[in-house]
Every structure is written in structure tokens, then in C-alpha cells.
Input
Amino acid sequence: MKIPRLNASGLLWIRFPAMLGLLAVMLVVGQDGVKKVADGINLRLFNSARFEEATRSEMEFNDLLNKAYRFTQGDGTVSREDVRFALDIFWSRMDTLRTASYRDALASGEVRETAIVSRVFASLPRLDAAVLALEAGNPASYKQVGDFAMEFQAPLLEYSDRSYTARRNQLRELVEKERQSLDDLRSIQIEFVGLSCLVLIYVLVELSLSRRINRRLKVALEDKRRLLASDHLTGIANRRHFEEALAEQSMQGSFAVVLVDLDGFKGVNDTLGHAAGDHVLKAVAEILDGLRLEGDIVSRLGGDEFAILLDGSRDRARHYAEAAVARVSAGCFFDGKPVRISASLGIAHIDDARMGATPEQMMRDADAALYVAKAAGRNCIRFTTPDIMAMSHRKQALQVEIRSAIETGQIDVAFQPIVSLADGRVTSLEALVRWEHPDLGLIDPHELVVAAEQASEILPLTLFVIERACNIRSTLAACGRDLQVAVNVSPRLLALERFSDAVIDVVHRHAVQRGGLLLELTEDAMMDESETVLRNIEHLRDGGIDFAVDDFGRGYSNLGRLAGLEFRRVKLDKSLIDNVTSSARSVDIVRGIGRMAADLGMDVVAEGVETAEQFAALQSLGIPFAQGYHFARPMKPLLLLPFLFGKPLPVEKRTLRAVR
Amino acid sequence: MRSILKHLLVLATLLVSAPFAHADDVLFTVRSAKGDFPVTEAVVEKLGTVTYKALAPGMDDALHQVRGPLMRDVLKAAGVEGTTAAAVALDKYEVEIPMTDFATLDVIAAIEIDGKRLTVRSKGPAWIIYPTGEHTDLQKDPVYEARSIWQLKDLVVK
Output
């Protein structure tokens, strides 16, 4: 899966410090610019004021001279006080201009004639005396003031002019500076606009980056969702996705549930290997997916089972199914070698469904139809029919009811005696489960086991039977009859880790002696000899429990396994016994197996003996044990006890006599 | 004995405080739409004065002991309100001072520097001084230097 990768992840941490740093630099630069502008203005304003005051000195001197002259000329508008005031103003001016701060400012304006100020100031007491000496209306009294004027007027004028020029220059510079300040301000403005652009670009980049990450996350989530919904081997939908789609399916539209099971797939796995099996599964998935239309869901449920939710009419479902069967049976190639494979299909179309059916019910119906297709010889398709649906319904009912049936005693155990052919003595019993269904009557044991397996009730059911078997054994033992009791066990149970512990627990509780309980394993079920199975068998055998091969001679009998697993007993299938009076070949097989079993140290039990002829034939072939209607039917404990202890009931009279 | 001491004190006070001053002498005038308010020696006497160290721009760069009435007291006594005051000096220098300066700063109309009464020759009789000793950030600021008007003649409140 693709994880969204952050391109700039290595540089991510630097982005914010970089932005802040940039901002700080801009602030410093901007502040510096503003400070330069402000300083320039300040200094020039400062100097300019001083130049102006210097310029005024000459004017104020002239004012003093003018007033003094008019006073001596007898001008009535000018008083002595006016002259003194003018002198005071001039005095104050000179005093100011000679200070260091003014001298420095003037020197910066290239006014070098500052010495005149000191000279004038030093001479001020003389001017003071001259002014004191003025007399109204006496022009002669002006002489001393006039002399003072002669001495200082010209240099003061020059000083004043210089200051004026300096001030003008200063003002010009101020204007220039202002223009430059404008430029500075403009550049500050540009810098801030640039910064704003940078910030904007940054924000946009950040935005698009996060959008991209978002998009990638979305894609990743989508990928993950798809992965969760898809089968890892074939890439089509998985069971989970199919079941979700099925649950959401509205019952209004037209659709079909199609179940596909490959015929002989286990053979491909076993003979060509798992790689070949996987290859076949992929090829089939491709075929089924290739026929898919918009709206269909093609999925693998697991193993070699496929399920399709097919949109459309019944005809379309038929076309799809027929095409699928044809293409799958065309076979495929693995490693250059052709692989023969075929498929069976069960189809439940909504048009065939019963009123009020749910998608789940249709799934079960399709399964029943698939079962029928398999039974009909495989490589074919079957639609649901009322019969099939009834069967499916019955199966469903059995599965649902099985637990309560055990609890209420509807399911019970009967025991069929196994007798010694040599002397007719009952040597052991086989426990057979019976279900008297109140509506459906007596349920076939095989059907019951299948239902129990599908309802995951097989372990409780088997333990229940073992419990009853142990019970009857204990009861009989108390009466002095030590009989071995056999119980049928689905090979699948041996794959359960806790199976042996559960059985041994029951055996211990009933204090069953070693060899008191025997477990019969069906021969035709291909038993998976996994570690768990072998450990369970070993554990049970250590616990004193024997094993028997059931139904030997039906289907694929594996002689090798007989030797390998050290069975205590082998039971010949009824199909062999049925022919033992008519077929020489059957006779040979029964004799052969009987000898071989004897050589291996196993008991041989003939099943389903129904006639005296079969009894005689088996006796002559040297088969030691048998069971069947000829001797006794399976019996509830209530009937079994009288049977065993010689109090025959009328029904059983005939067979009993036959045995003895 | 007691009366002699009292007389001596009065004499000393007269000698020290205002050797040439008379109660009617006008230091400067506050002008406004309501009319003129002459700030005389008597007004200053009534308002009282504050003393602190500050720069006197136009003298030198040193801090001096300055004394004078707070401008806000003067304006309150004159009963005027406004946003700006145009200050005019005897030498015809003019500057505008925002009235907030007087409200927020202890600006005085200095009449004495380093214990000497100000005359026209020493930039008197009244000199607007900012408390630059306390507010050092105002020192050398051309704006406040420009507002530190000496030889204050009129304060026209607008």
C-alpha cells in the first residue's frame, strides 16, 4: 500500500523559523529606514532653528541702533525703556549664540565667523554704558553707540549673512532629504509589499501542499477500503464485501445469488501443489470477473467457493452461469501443463424466491441448489426449485433447532448390538444418534450430522452421544455385562485442539475402563493428518480409547492409512455386504480385507447384515463380528436391557431366536 | 527678641526671593477668546512654584535647578481651555504647543534658574521649561526644544 509521503517533511520544521526570521529582518530594515528618515529631519530642524536665530542677531542689533538713534534725535515714540529693551534682547541673543551648542551648529553650516559673537559679548558692558549715556533729543549722545556700531556692524552683518546662507542650504538639504526620505519610505513600502507577497505565496503553497496531502490520504484510505473489501489472492471482492452487498440488497430489484464451487479442486491442490491451486483460483476468478457487468459483485468466499450477486433477469443469470461453466471446464494451463477443472453452480433468482425471502435465505437456497448440482454429477448449473428450497428450509430449520432438540430430548441415542458370528454373543454396541422431529419425523442420521456441522453444534452433539454411551456402559457394567461402546465421530472434530480433552473428561467422569469406548471414523472422508489430528488421536489412545475405521470399502479406501493409524477395528461397508451373496468379486474383497485386518491385529465387523444368507456367507468367510437388522435394530436403553438380559420383547423375538 | 527675628526673616525673604520684583509686574499674558489674563508676580505667588532639575535649551547641555509655576495651574487660574497654545516671545519667536503637554507633563513657566531670577538678558522673565530631568527621553528632542520658548510674552490659547 502506498503511504502518502510528505515531500518537504525534512524541511518542514524550518518553515516557521524561516518565516519569523524573514519578518524580523524586515522589521529591523524598516525600523532602520524610518529611524534614518526621522534622524535626518530632527538634526536639520535643530540646526535650522539655530541658523535662524543667528540671522536675527543682525536685525536685533539694527533695531537697537535704530531706536537709540531715534531716541537721541528726539523721536517721541521711542522711550529710554524701548532702547533698553532692545539692548536686553540683543544681549540675550549674543549670550545664546556664544554657547557651545550654537557654535557647533553654526560650524556644521560652515559659518566660521563665530568669533565675532564672543567679541561682541565681551564688549556688551561697553554698549550697556553707551546706552545708559544716551540722552533724549541730544544727537551727540549717540556717538558712543555709533562707534560701537562702526566697529561691529559689518562683521555682524557678514555673520548674519553666512548664517542665512547656511540656513538656506540647510533648507535645501532638508527638501532633498525629504525627497530621499520619500524614496526610503517608498522602498520600505515596497519591502513590505514584497513581504506580504511572500506571506501570501507561503500561505498558498501551504494550502496546496495540505490539499495534496489530503488527496493522497483520501487515495490511501480508498486503497485501504478496497483492500479490506478484496480477496488478496484473486483481487476480486471478498466474503466480507459480498455479505455487506448482499445485506444491503433490496428485495425489490431483479437479481440472483450465484454460488460457484469447483469440482475436484482438492485433487488439483493435492496432486499439483498449492501453487497450481492458486493459479486455478485466479483463472476462475478472472473468468467470473470477465463476465461481470456493471452492478454485479463477483467475490471469493474462501477456498474454492465463489459467490456472485448478479443484477438482472433470470435469463441473464442462466447465460452467465452457462458461460461460466463452459469457460471453467475449458481448463487452464499451469507450468505448461493443462489442468482439468470444472465448476458447479447453484443459482437463486429473486423470481423463484418465496414470499418474504431475505437475501440471506436466497444465499441458503443457492447453496442448496449448488448441493443439488454437485449431486447431479457436477459441471452443471441448478436453479432453485420449490423442492430445493424446501430442502434448504428444512436444513435451516434443523440447524436452528438442533441445540434445543438435544436439551429437550428430541435427539436421543439408540444402541445397536454387534455380535460375534461364532457364538451369537453380543460383544459390543454402536451408539447411533436419533432425532424424532415432531413435524419432520425421524431425521436421517447423516442429515443430522451435516446440520450439526453447519450449525457448529457437532462437538456438543458428539459429547452428548459419548456421554450417553458411557452412561449405558456403566449401567451394563453394574449388571455384570462389560461391553465396548462405539461412537461415530466426524473426522473434522479431530482437528479441534480441545477435542481429546473433552472426550477424556467424559470418560473419566464415568470411570470407563481402558477399551471401554471406541471412536468410529468415517473412512471416505479424506482425513487431514495435521499435527493437531495426530496429537488428538495419540492423546485419546493414551486415555484408553480405541479407534475404528467406519464404512470401509465405500469410496476411496486407503489401505495405507489402516496400517499407519493402528485402528483397533475395521467395519466393512454395507455396500460390500449387500453383494456378498451374489457377487464373487465382493466375496473376494470381503475375504481379502478380513484376512488383512486379522493380520494387522484388527477386529472386522460386517455392517448391515440383513439376511440369514449374508450371515452364513460371512461366517464361512471367517468374518468374526457383524451387526444389522438380522440380529438387532438400534434400541433405546429401555428396550436394550431386556434384550441383553434375556427378557425378549415380542417385536424382537424373531431376530433374537435367529441369533441364538 | 521675637519681633526682631520676624523682621529679619521678612527682610531676608525679600532680599532672596525678588529683589527687583513687584507684585504687579507682568511676567507674560494668557490670551484667549475670554480675554487676557496677565500672569503677575502676585499670581505666581498665589499659585506657588515647583522646583526641579532640567535642561535649559539655549544655555548649555547641563541640568539646572529651575523654579516656576506649573503651566496647568496657570491655565487653570486663567480659566481657559483649548487644544493648542501659540506661544510668542519678546524676540518675536513663535511656536505652537499642544495643551496636552501641560496636562501630562509638569511643564513650568520658569522664573528662576539656579537660584537667580530671570531677566530679559537671561531669557526671562518667563521661560517654558519641560521636565527633561525626569523625562530623559525628551532631552535633545528638537520638538521639545522648539517648544521650550524663552522670553515668553503671550500664550494664545485656541
In short: Chain A has three domains: 9-208, 237-384, 401-659. The CA atoms of residues 98 and 117 of chain A lie 6 Å apart.
